[in-house]
Amino acid sequence: MKGRHLMQGFADVHDPVMRDRIVELLRPALSHPGAVFVDGTLGLAGHSIAMLNACPEARLIGIDRDPDAHQVAEQRLGALMERATLVHAVYDELPDVLADLGVARVDAILLDLGLSSLQIDRTERGFAYRVDAPLDMRMNPTEGPTAADVLNTYPAKDLSNILKWYGEERFADRIARAIVAGREDAPFDTSGRLVEVISGAIPAAARHTGGHPAKRTFQALRIEVNRELVALEGVLPAAVDALAVGGRVAVLSYHSLEDRLVKRTFAKGATDRAPRDLPVVPEELKADLRLLTRGAERPDAEEIATNPRAASARLRVAERIKEAA
Ligand SMILES: C[S@@+](CC[C@H](N)C(=O)[O-])C[C@H]1O[C@@H](n2cnc3c(N)ncnc32)[C@H](O)[C@@H]1O
């Protein structure tokens, strides 16, 4: 089976990040017959399996833009596939996905942002900076520009902005200039040469601080190639709209820009829209959401020790408390 083949050589399947806490927070919304759970980032289906096992009445709509994820998820779901529908889509297409399936409202939605271990471990996908591989980085390898396209065509200013914003790279200007100079010799096509150029652009004294010198540039390229923040900005209001009253949405983010978008959307939904001096808030101006996490929750030290990827995770969960006005 192809799913099994994809799993070979990738023994390191961690428990899904903050699995038990996510189950605890979403389960109350999924305990009635016919409850619908949307996993917008199906990946290896770790969270989905935990949710379906904890909520025997619920069915799953599992969305992922990466066709490889579907094969592995289907295999890992096994008999649970009887309660699952897997859809190949970008998660901001949620309204269309639900309309195609004839589903009007859902009861819980999870987004676990970023890359799966399948994507990181399969070096030919080009996400890893420690091995020399083609500069692809597309989560859906059949669509859109690759990391090489970005590196070889974007103006220096755009490259620098991407590195600054998405990578929080303090040497963004220097690296962008070095990339533009490098591509005049020959276009970039593999990660090895890019890593060399990045290392050469960073002052020697800073090369050994703050992790691998290419880490922030690779993160920035990945976010740009997959238009990750654009998709997140689109899906958050769509997710709130899709929730039934009493439905819950959980987002696990790994980057401060992602978490800021989630925080803002949830805070706005959880705030009455009436002018401050109005003694009674009319129903239509009352908040649509209730926050179920105080600030962002973080994994505990034990989880971070066994899964370093969890270290930057932040979880925010909200509940829909009324219909839109
Ligand atoms: C961190 S992994 C999810 C892991 C999953 N929660 C599990 O337990 O196995 C993120 C997954 O979401 C997918 N993904 C990321 N952004 C996406 C988007 N905008 N639309 C659809 N899928 C996306 C990736 O392809 C990847 O498979």
Q: Mind summarizing the main beta sheet?
A: 7 strands, mixed
- Detail the poorly predicted runs: none
- Care to count the β-strands? 7
Hetero groups: S-adenosylmethionine
- The proportion of strand residues reads 5-15%
Q: What class do helices, strands and sheet pairing give?
A: alpha/beta
Helix content: 40-55%
Give the termini separation. 49 Å
Descriptive keywords:
alpha/beta, 325 residues, globular, binds S-adenosylmethionine, 13% strand, seven-stranded mixed sheet
Tell me about this structure.
- The structure is a single chain.
- The protein is α/β, with parallel strands linked by helices and 325 residues long.
- 42% of the residues lie in helices and 13% in strands.
- It has 14 helices and seven strands.
- It has a seven-stranded mixed sheet, with helices on both faces.
- Helix 2 packs across helix 3 (46-54) and helix 9 packs across helix 10 (191-201).
- S-adenosylmethionine binds at residues 16, 41, 43-47, 63-66, 69, 90-91, 112, 114-116, 139, 231.
Present the secondary structure layout:
Blueprint: H1 2-7, H2 19-26, E1 36-39, H3 46-54, E2 59-64, H4 67-77, E3 84-88, H5 94-101, E4 106-112, H6 117-121, H7 147-153, H8 156-167, H9 172-185, H10 191-201, H11 215-225, H12 228-242, E5 243-253, H13 256-269, E6 289-291, H14 301-306, E7 314-320
Parallel strand pairs: 1-2, 1-4, 2-3, 4-5
Antiparallel strand pairs: 5-7, 6-7
Helix pairs in contact: 2-3, 8-9, 8-11, 9-10, 12-13
Bound molecules: S-adenosylmethionine.
